[in-house]
Amino acid sequence: MGKALNSKFMAANGRSLSQENLQYLSIKAFSSQNLQSDNPSQLSVSWSTFNRDPLPGRTFTFWKWFHGVLELTRKHLRQSWNDGTIMGFVSRTQAQDLLLSKPNGTFLLRFSDSEIGGITIAWVAQDPQTNERQVWNLQPFTAEDFNIRTLADRIHDLPHLTNLYPDIPKDTAFGNLYTPIDEAPVPGEAGYVKCDLVNRIPGLSTRPASLMTDNPATPSMVHNEPLSPPSMNQGHTMDDLSIGNLDENDLSSMLQDDAYDDGGHNQLNIDELLTGLNTGGLTALPTPTSTSINIGGPKV
Predict the structure, then answer these.
(1) Which of 125, 195, 229, 197 has the alpha carbon at shortest distance from 138?
(2) Of 96, 167, 213, 226, whose Cβ has the fewest other Cβ atoms within 10 Å?
(3) Angle of helix 248-255 relative to helix 2-13, nearest 10 degrees?
(4) What residues have CB less than 8 Å from 145, skipping those under 6 apart?
(5) Rounded average pLDDT over 36-51
(6) 24 neighbors 229 (Cβ within 8 angstroms)
(7) What is the CA 204 to chain-centroid distance, rounded?
(8) Burial class of residue 27, CB neighbours in 10 A (0-12, 13-18, 19+)
């Protein structure tokens, strides 16, 4: 199953899923079961687990969640995904552990567990009330949000976000995706001056003083390798799993729902994905933000 999901994601978005990504997906797919098996190769994903029964505590299935992430990335985050600036498949708990080991202002991007087609920004900062360091998570952004303002511009709006995990200055990571800002208001054809919606976090509208002293010197080189969380040491990945009791026609129809063809590139070959099924089973390879208004020139 890991190979099928990876092929699907690559066809839509370019960069492949890492082993850590597949490991996270295996844990999520089997979140209602015990992965600590003496013979993990015998574990299989039934059709009900894959796309009928909702995930624990959710109203949607594993496939609907995965497909929502795939679509959000394809439509709005493809460049960032291929640049390696989206960690994506990482749990909230693991994101907290990673960020607490870094200076205040460090942040990462992960796909939401609680919302279909959502991505959230998690960052570490001082709690203004308790003065203790903690990890904050913004309400997930969806395609509707990115139709209004891009992810890169939203990151640019927030001065509390300084370095992309592990230590990449945010302007280095996302600067090429910022929307250019006019130095002076420019009236449109009807004589009106355009306004921009700018993100801010209520109660955290200015840069905390702690960030001025807690950040390391910014490196001069960008980290070009795709970001993936460190191994979760669970012992099993999607490579150990297979799809059992899954109707071939159902899977074929599901995977062919969308034709991801970037001008003739990255066309997904469904026949290749179903080769395993034809021989008895497909086996994988071993808090909310508010907005303020910016009129024309520099943001206010």
Answers:
(1) 125
(2) 213
(3) 20
(4) 154
(5) 65
(6) yes
(7) 24
(8) middle
Please list, in sequence order, all residues whose beta carbon lies within 8 angstroms of the beta carbon of residue 185, skipping any fewer than 6 positions away.
193, 295, 296, 297
- How many Å apart are CA 245 and CA 4, to the nearest integer? 16
Q: How confident is the model at residue 247 (pLDDT cuts 50, 70, 90)?
A: low
Q: Please state, in angstroms and rounded to a whole number, the distance separating the CA atoms of residues 213 and 78.
A: 34
Closest CA to 207 of 263, 244, 258, 162: 162
Q: What is the enclosing helix (H) or strand (E) of 170? A: helix 170-174
Which residues, including other chains, have CB under 8 Å from residue 110's CB and lie 6 or more apart? 87, 88, 89, 90, 91, 92, 95, 119, 120, 122
| Chain segment 155-169, per-residue pLDDT in tens | 999 999 999 999 999
What torsion do the CA atoms of 256, 259, 260, 265 make, to the nearest 10 degrees? 110
pTM of this structure: 0.69
* DSSP track, 248-276: HHHHHHHHTSS---BTTBS---HHHHTHH
Q: What is the mean pLDDT of residues 83-93?
A: 93
